[in-house]
Every structure is written in structure tokens, then in C-alpha cells.
Amino acid sequence: MSPAARRKSTAASASNAKTVQLDDAAHAPSENPIAPNMADPAILEKIDTLFAMGVGRLVPLPQIVVVGDQSSGESSVLEGLTGLPFPRNSGLCTKFATHVTLLRGPVKSITISIIPDKSATDQHQQAVKAWGLHDDTWFGKKSFAAIMDEAHKVMGLGKKSDGGAQNTFSQDILKLEIQGPDQQHLSVIDVSGIFRVTTKGLTTKQDQIMVTTMVRGYVENKRFISLAVIPANIDIATQEILTMAEEFDPAGQRTLGVLTKPDLVDRGAEQAILDLVNGHSHRLALGWSIVRNLGQSQLNSADKHRDDHEKVFFENNAPWDSLEADRVGVLALQMRLQHILSETIRNEFPKVKAEIHEKLAMKKENLKKIGGERITFQQQIRYLLEVTGSTEYPALRFATAIGRRNEQLAEMFEEHGHSYSSLDEPKRKDSTAAESAAATRSGSKRRRDEISLRLRNDPDGLEGLEDPEDTIAPKSETAILDWLTNVYVTSRGFELGTDDNAMLAITMKIQSSNWEPIALCYIRDVIATAHGLIIRLLGLLCPESRLRGGLINLLEQQLLQQYQKAIEHVHFLLNVERAGTPTTLNQGFNDELDKNRHDRREKDMRAKAVDMVFPDGQGEKYGEKSKYKAVLLPDVLAYKAADKTVQEHEAYYKVARKRFVDNVCMHSADYFLVTGPAAPLKLFSPTFVGRLTEEDLLGIAKEDHGAQEKRKALQKDIEGLKAAKKILY
């Protein structure tokens, strides 16, 4: 069967199904059983219900949207699909989006309502929702035009806006629901056509931008199928809607091209249109269709239906009669749209359910962050008490972060805490210890290899605290033994079992000169971490800048006082260790001293034994024998008093260093800043809230208008999403 014959057969069966007599037969609604319902009607109706509820603003819903440039024939295509006699040349139906739903029902009826713009004022939304009508009888173009005019007025089009300009376009959506026993389910949205040239007194540049933005919003929706309407008599490359569709759907998976006005195509240019429809050029995954809308003379004629005129045109005019039936005419287009919409809904329905569930959870979480209303004194107190109960987990994370900084402190003290190299460290002859220490203390010169002590950046609000020196020069590699060569130890102190406790105090103070900058930079890092966490925590718990700023201002003085106490305690510990009497009851000191003496003696004996037995320097070949000789040598070598002092100093220094690091971590950091009763994270507590005056609460906890509006919007969204879940599940 030829394409023309197949078209005749399909059109004949479709025409026989039209039995409804209307006021204007040329505009009869299409009620053609051209295809069985391809998806569960209940699911299709659920999607439409969600759209009418405004859920599509929160979660993308599967829909077909008719888009095109101005005068492309959008409204005529919509009229052909729905059978509704949209008024022409009035400009009424092109000033807002129109959502048309065809439903199968026991009784023929039409329901008209307006879905208000969610960003409009409450007054406008209430007025729009209050308008609507339901009619069990079909009507012709005159009565429908009157209804469209009424909707036009309800939306406020033509009136002056608050800014003095005339409202030409509306973000409201006119919803038309048509039911009948022979209707096939179809849902389409028609939006205003894109225009490039403004008309004085009718449209403005702002209108142009608004329409383009509105159309883009529909086209970029990932679940919308774009029905791109393009006149066949115009170069498609000039059509902005096709460029927009390619931008958001580069693979053409969501775009169905519809060519109009084939009767206006210049002779000789038909082949380019045939190539489009047959998929030979500018291919789209959903393909192309071609329709022929009624001309003005045919609109005024009541002797034939719209579809009859279209059928005659495509059957009797070459080369259009060569096209396949499923690509020609509104009836075939309607069938394709039903199939596409059904497949889209079937594929996307599970995803829609999942996204509604996720979106509802997210909205609830956002509402929880905002908290309850804070209009009254009691509500403000309750809210702040709820916020204070949310700081426990962040406090645990803070302790973890400080634990890592403690480890870094211990490593830094072990590596850089001492000014002189120990006995086992290699010597470096570039400068003396005194020169390096003096240069570091005076700041008269800065070394390229200075060691940075700060590991955290200060957040805002800590400018008033002590700012310690944040770098030190590397330790001199001149061994401490060289410095104490001329010192002779003559007495034994009762505290430590050493010969001269006064000398130990002197060497200890010099050797620990780096302790102060290292310890102070450490405590500043802990303070920076604590303060930064408090700022971030209040940012999470108190999204409102007014509330967050007010709490920080009230807490700031107490926080700075606590930070200062931690710093002062570091100074106290430094004074005890570096200016006090070297004292320890730690058995580790004696153990370390014995170990140092033993290691020093063995090392010296081994070297001398090798030199004595193997003067030719071959002792390394006989390591075991050298060691044997060293052990057998009697302890007859006299050690210098300085060497003994160094051994005692190094033993005590190691014990004191570990003790000091522990005390700084436990007292200054942990007690004052982490776990103590006045630790920063504990200052924001129920006790703190209980001490606030009504004036304090009014200044920080009273909810501003923006927060109230945000809560209302979230509550409204949550109600809508909950209702959506009831519909879907």
C-alpha cells in the first residue's frame, strides 16, 4: 500500500469516530481512537496531578512542551492536537503557558483553571486559584474566546504593575482538562513564542528576555520532550528554538521537530523539507513530522473539519503525497506524542518517585536547620537550647584534630627543640651555636632555611591575641661537648645525683631556647582550630547571619579570655621548666643517664681498641674482634668533666622535654581548650542561654522577615511533596 493509500485508510477510520456536534464543527475536539492507551492511565493522571500541584517546580516531571519562535504556528498545532478553538490574532493565548490534558472519562467535559506562578504574591495566587470553570458541554470559538479573555484579565495582563509598566506576559499557567469516553490520553504544554523584535506599545525588551528565559526553563528540563514547531517556508538555521533545543539536548533525544505551513514552501524548495521529514538531514532521535494548519478562509468555513482539510492537502499535493503516513498530519502526530509520552513516563516514573523522596528529606533537613518559629521569648529560648544540644559530635571531631597536632608538636620538639646538637649528631662548621642563637633572638638576620612553626591559619576574630615568633633558625650542629670542654664538675647535687645542679640549670636554659616559640605557636594553632570550628559550627547550626553574628559577639569576650588563659599557662610552664630548679623523680632520668654513659664509654673504648690493635686502619675488617678487644680493655681512660655534664644534661633534657610537651598538651590545650569546664565549645551551653536577658534574645534570636518567608516556603514545599508521595505510593 502506498503512503497516500495508508493515509486515506487511517484518516477514514479517524473521521468516522467524530460524532460530537459542536457550536463550530471546524474546531471539534479530537476524539479519535487512533491508538490504544500505551501506558497505565492511572500513572499518566498522577503525573498530571503532580504538575497541577506545582510539584514540577521541585522535581522534573515527564511532559511534552510545544515551543517555537513567534508566528511559527504553535497555537495552531495545539489547536489541532486538542480540538480547542484558540482565538487568533487576539494575542491572548500567546501571553502565558497553556497546559492541555486530554483524559478518557465517562462524560464529556472541560475544566479550566489557572496554576499560579509560585513567585507571585499571596494575593495574586489566591485570586488566580479562586477562578475557574467546569462545563459539561463543548463550546465554539466565540465562547472559548470569551473564557480566554477572562483568564487574561484574572492573570492581570494589560494592567499596570507595581513598577508602572504594563504586564504583557504572565508566568501563570492556564490549565485545560478535557475528558470524554473516546479521548486518548495526552498532555502537552504550549508556551509563548520567542520573538526578537519588540512592538511599540505591546512588548518591551524585558518581555523578550522574560519569554526567552521561560522557554529555556522548559527546554532544559531533563524530563520534558520538546515539540519544536518550525515553519517549513523558513530556513531552519534561523530558528532560535532549534538552537536552544540543540544546546540542552545535543543528541536530539528529547526533541521532536514539527514542520508547519508546507503550503507556503517555495516551488523547488520542497526537497529540503522532504529530507528533514525522511531523516536524511538534521536528524533527531524522535524524528520530524509535518502538519498543515487551516488558512484564514478555511477557518471561516464550517463545511469541513480541520483534519479533513489537512488530509486533502497531503493526499492531493505533490511532493507531500510521497511522505509516510506516520509522519504526516495532526492525527499521526498525536499518535506519536502518545507513544513518546507513555514511554517517557514509564521510564521516568520510578526516578520521579525516588527524587520526590530525596527532595522531601532535603527540605525537611533544611527546615530543621532553620528551626522553629522565634517570635516569642519562649520560642527564642527553646530554639537556642536546641542549638546548644548539637555541639557534642563536633567537639569529638575537634579532639581528634588536636590529637594530630599534639603528635606534630612532639615531633617538632624532638627535631628542633634543642639549640645545640647532641653528642650523636654530625657537626656543621658554618656557624657557632652562640651566633645562631643570637641571630635568631635578635632578628638581625633571617636564614633561608628557617623553620616555620605555625601549621594553621588564624580565622577572623583572633587579632587581639599574642602573636609569637613563628619561625626559628635550624639548630647549630656544633656539639654541646665543645662548648663545655673547660667546665669541670666538682660536686654532686642531691636532687639528681649529678655533680653540679647549677651548671645543669644554665645549660638547660640555653638548650631549650626554642621551646617558647614552638610551644606558643602550637597553642595558637590549637586556638585557631577551636575558633574556626566554632565559626563553622555556628554557621551550620545558625544559617541566619543575624543570629550567627549576634552569638559570636556575645561569646567573643569569653572566648578570648579562655584563649588568653591557655597562652598564659604555656608561659607558666615555660617559666617552671626553663627558669626553675632542674628537678625530677622520674626513674627514667637515671636510666637515661646510665645508658648515655654506657654508650659513650663503649663507643670511646671501641675506637681506642681498634687503633691500638690495628694501627694500619684495617680494624673494620674484623668488627667482632675489635669489639672483643674494647670490652677487655680496663676502664682506665679519664673522661672530662664536660663530657659528664653533657651526659647528665642530655639525660635530663630528654626527660624534661617529654614532660613539658605532655604538660602543654594536657594543661594548656586539652584542659583550657578541649575538655575543661570552660573550654570554648562548652561556653555555648544551656547555662549560657539561661543567662541571656530578654534584650539579648531580642537582639540575636528574633527571627527576621527573610527567615520567616524561607520557613513558609519550605513548609509549603514539604506539604506539597508529602501530598505527592501519597499520590504516588
TrEMBL record:
SUPFAM superfamilies: P-loop containing nucleoside triphosphate hydrolases. Residues 10-19 have a biased composition (Low complexity). Residues 460-470 have a biased composition (Acidic residues). GO terms for molecular function: GTP binding; GTPase activity; microtubule binding. GO terms for biological process: endocytosis; intracellular distribution of mitochondria; mitochondrial fission; peroxisome fission. Residues 58-350 form the Dynamin-type G domain. Residues 642-729 form the GED domain. InterPro entries: Dynamin, Dynamin_GTPase, Dynamin_N, Dynamin_stalk, G_DYNAMIN_dom, GED_dom, P-loop_NTPase. GO terms for cellular component: membrane; microtubule; mitochondrion. The keyword Nucleotide-binding applies. Keywords: GTP-binding, Nucleotide-binding. This is Dynamin family protein. It comes from Tothia fuscella.
